[in-house]
Specification:
- The protein contains 23 helices and 16 strands.
- With about 800 residues, it is an alpha+beta fold.
- Among the domains are: about 80 residues, Serine Threonine Protein Phosphatase 5, Tetratricopeptide repeat (Alpha Horseshoe), CATH 1.25.40.1050; about 80 residues, no CATH class; about 140 residues, no CATH class.
- The protein has a five-stranded antiparallel β-sheet with strand order 1-9-12-11-10. A three-stranded mixed β-sheet has the order 2-3-4. The protein has a two-stranded antiparallel sheet with strand order 5-6.
- Helix 9 packs across helix 13 and helix 11 crosses helix 13.
- Its EC number is 3.1.13.-.
């Protein structure tokens, strides 16, 4: 019987205002009520639901809640926060709360690569060594089947640890500019906006995969003395100081573009070489396989396994049996002219590509480029692989003929790049300085708008960047003179937003009275719904990198056209187009239940204030929830999916509004008093934590020990040209790392960590290097290392047996 073809799921339905989102909101309400009626773990929970009818992005609603909560004097500074999501902006938002007890739970986007790695026992894919068919401890045949239904693993991103890494990499010691981690984090978040986000394109000289964030971070440290302080404070941006950053970046544009071209050419040439090499190896493998087919019926006594002892043959008989089976199967397939059964390729579809998914694709490409030889396969896999290569050889050659380098009209690496850039991307000549300056001003507005959006909230619902591309950094001149102001505006209604973001092909998610505005030629806004549009792939390789040049929406034109058909909407559609409210839920067993119930008995229309003593400190205003009838039946939104009605619903819900901040109140971006936080990272964790390029980092040579280059540990940065005496004092740099330190008899070290290495990094600990009888030695990793009286990173810490880095860090990382 032929299966009914499944209806295509249009992911555009996941947009506020669609019937899908309205149904999802009902399902969420049902889920909350169900858990509060049946799950004991939910009996004391307060649940706040802000669905798609409430304007704003979900993560920013959460941030607003945290900002308001931490502004209250009753707030517990050691409150923990956990947020789920893959978007990179969640990391920036979490940092911007200045709440160290913050974690982001996210799917492990690299888990598929880990799963497809070969079994270490038989080298086949699809299972691990403990479940290998060749293992004596292998479980039953049923359990050895490939598990295709395993759950995707999740990982935690600990913001407090990220803060430590950022501090280590950014910290400076500049007279007159006190180090402030919170201010530095805000500056770092702000700099990340230059690399691109949901509201602004990245500057042409900044590509995230080229290390753009590291470039900006190093520039920031370099120009800090000139800036005289931080670029941001409490959600405000000091464009006068930002000028130093973009000026420094602009002076490097030529070099960045030339280096980018050189790197692209190296990758391209390397890919071509690897392709040719793989094709050659494939042909050789095919030839060897054909030879093996011919020799199968009369294998010589001194064949491939003649070097094995009897014991080896017995131990490897399963491998030999698999080899014979694979050869037979391959020969049979070849004689019948039919290929061996192949596993279907896995195709993953997504709604929105996140930064991690993009980076995963790029890392996969880089890993493929780094491969010099194909994985070693067992005979079964080898037979499949060879026959597949033969079948695909013709197709690959045809495809190779079609492949060519992406076109690039601008050619940023050649003289005249700026003129070509503005002419091609903006249709401007360099002489049109006022127009170019307007582009720069709009971009600066965007930087300020986005930063306020992250730290304060949405300052204007109508602002947008009206260009497809960003200006060049070298054109950011005298930006502190820009008078940046934003128009006070209200958010669009759900249907208005739908008409502004959906294509005509997705009109089924919009009420029928609006359809003609998207499809008819006489529509006053038909130009907003093109069926064909340009995707600028200039200089791009992947489709997702292209710039989609859809027309910008003029909200006034859009609303005027829509106003002509609002009277044709049904009652249900009018309700769906209204702005909703945030809802607070508690169960009957919660101590605030009775108090929340009183809003349904009061006669006045005034909102009630939450009693913080009953809600564990939660404050705000509450009122009747139009969707709630206490103790009634909550009918299942999915009756055909074994979800029963909830009779005599024991939960209650009320509308909820956050308390409003006083006029002129500033959300201060600093740590709160009473916060308790301990550092987690140790020396080894921070050893390579730097924004510097790999060529500038410290390297370890087993003959010469560690080679210090530029910045290594923060102590080096703060005390350059100085060293520590055996009691913590300072001496000249000349006697520092070289006096029985990094250069004196390096026995031990990393390579002798299990042999009582007498030096860690050096011999007797470098008596004049970071302390007496210690420093980075005094026992190495063992023979006192990592825990005994003369070891760790110096028996006595960074400076001997006294304070001031003497006995410091608790006797080193494992000393006294």
């Amino acid at each position: 019987m032929m299966k009914k073809k499944e209806e295509h799921f249009d992911s555009n339905c996941i947009t506020p205002g669609t019937p899908f989102m309205a149904h999802l909101a009902t399902c969420l309400r049902y889920h909350i009520a169900s858990k509060q009626n049946t799950d004991p773990l939910w009996k004391n929970l307060k649940v706040i639901l802000s669905d798609a009818t409430v304007p704003g992005e979900g993560e920013h609603k959460v941030m607003e809640f945290i900002r308001v909560e931490r502004s209250r004097p009753e707030h517990n500074p050691n409150t923990s926060h956990v947020m789920y999501g893959l978007d990179a902006d969640l990391i920036m938002l979490a940092l911007g709360t200045h709440e160290p007890h913050f974690k982001i739970i996210r799917e492990d986007v690299f888990s598929d690569n880990k799963r497809t790695s070969n079994c270490t026992k038989c080298n086949r894919r699809g299972h691990t060594a403990d479940k290998c068919p060749l293992s004596e401890n292998a479980e039953s045949t049923e359990s050895n089947k490939e598990d295709t239904s395993s759950l995707k693993p999740y990982v935690f991103l600990h913001v407090n640890i990220l803060r430590e890494y950022i501090e280590h990499a950014l910290k400076f010691n500049i007279p007159g500019i006190p180090w402030n981690l919170e201010r530095a984090i805000d500056d770092w978040v702000f700099m990340c906006f230059f690399v691109g986000n949901d509201f602004l394109p990245h500057l042409p000289s900044l590509e995230i995969r080229e290390g753009a964030i590291s470039t900006l971070s190093l520039l920031w440290k370099k120009i800090m003395p000139e800036m005289g302080g931080y670029m941001t404070k409490n959600g405000d941006v000091d464009l006068k100081r930002v000028q130093f950053l973009v000026t420094e970046l602009g002076q490097s544009e030529d070099t960045i573009f030339r280096d980018r071209k050189a790197a692209d050419e190296r990758r391209s040439q390397g890919a071509k070489r690897r392709k040719l090499e793989n094709e050659r190896r494939a042909m050789e493998a095919k030839s060897r396989e054909n030879d093996s087919f011919a020799l199968m019926t009369a294998a010589p006594v001194n064949g491939p396994h003649s070097g094995m002892s009897n014991q080896d043959v017995v131990a490897n008989r399963a491998d030999l049996r698999l080899a014979n089976l694979s050869a037979a199967a391959a020969l049979k397939a070849q004689m019948n002219g039919t290929p061996l059964e192949q596993e279907p390729p896995m195709v993953q579809k997504g709604i929105k590509r996140t930064a991690d998914e993009v980076n995963a694709d790029e890392e996969k490409e880089e890993n493929e480029e780094a491969e010099e030889a194909p994985d070693t396969l067992d005979p079964v896999e080898a037979g499949k692989a060879i026959l597949k290569r033969v079948a695909d050889e013709k197709e690959k050659k045809e495809q190779a003929a079609k492949e060519k380098e992406p076109s690039d009209e601008v050619r940023l690496w050649e003289t005249g790049w700026k003129e070509r850039y503005y002419r091609t991307k903006f249709h401007l000549n360099l002489e049109e300085k006022d127009e170019i300056r307007e582009v720069v001003k709009s971009y600066c507005e965007g930087l300020v708008w986005v930063f306020k959006y992250y730290y304060v909230g949405c300052v204007s619902w109508s602002w947008y960047f009206p260009y497809y591309y960003a200006p060049m950094a070298s054109d950011f001149v005298n930006i502190e003179s820009f008078d940046i102001k934003f128009e006070q505006s209200a958010p669009l209604k759900p249907f208005e937003q739908l008409m502004g973001v959906l294509p005509a092909a997705s009109k089924s998610h919009i009420p029928a009275p609006f359809h003609h505005l998207m499809t008819e030629g006489d529509s006053p806004i038909i130009d907003y719904y093109p069926t064909q549009f340009e995707v600028d792939m200039d200089g791009k390789k992947w489709e997702w990198q292209g710039v989609v040049k859809l027309p910008f929406i003029n909200s006034e034109r859009l609303l005027n056209a829509m106003n002509t058909v609002y009277d044709k909407l049904s009652e249900e559609e009018v309700h769906r187009n209204s702005v909703g409210a945030t809802v607070l839920y508690v169960s009957e067993t919660h101590k605030a239940y009775n108090y929340l119930s009183t809003v349904y008995t009061k006669r006045s229309n005034e909102k009630a204030l939450l009693d913080a003593t009953l809600t564990d400190g939660l404050t705000g205003e509450i009122d009747k929830d139009p969707e709630c009838i206490p103790n009634s039946t909550f009918y299942s939104p999915l009756p055909n999916h074994e979800l029963p009605d909830i009779n005599n619903d024991k939960s209650i819900s009320v509308t909820y509004e956050l308390p409003k901040a006083p006029e002129g109140f500033v959300f201060s971006t600093q740590l709160l008093k009473g916060l308790k936080i301990n550092n987690v990272l140790g020396y080894e964790d921070l050893m390579f934590a730097t924004f510097e390029k790999i060529d500038n980092r410290h390297r370890y040579n087993q003959n010469r020990g560690w080679t210090p280059q530029l910045n290594h540990m923060e102590e080096y940065r703060e005390h350059q040209n100085q060293r520590y005496s055996n009691r913590g004092g300072h001496h000249s740099y000349d006697n520092g790392y070289n006096d029985r330190g990094y250069n004196n008899d390096r026995r031990g070290g990393y390579q002798n960590r299990n042999n009582r290495g007498r030096g860690g990094y050096n011999r007797g600990g470098g008596h004049n290097n970071y302390g007496h009888n210690g420093g980075y030695g005094g026992g190495g990793y063992n023979g006192g290392g990592y825990g005994n009286s003369r070891g760790g990173y110096g028996g006595g810490g960074y400076g001997g047996n006294n304070n001031n880095y003497g006995g410091g860090y608790g006797g080193g990382y494992g000393g006294r």
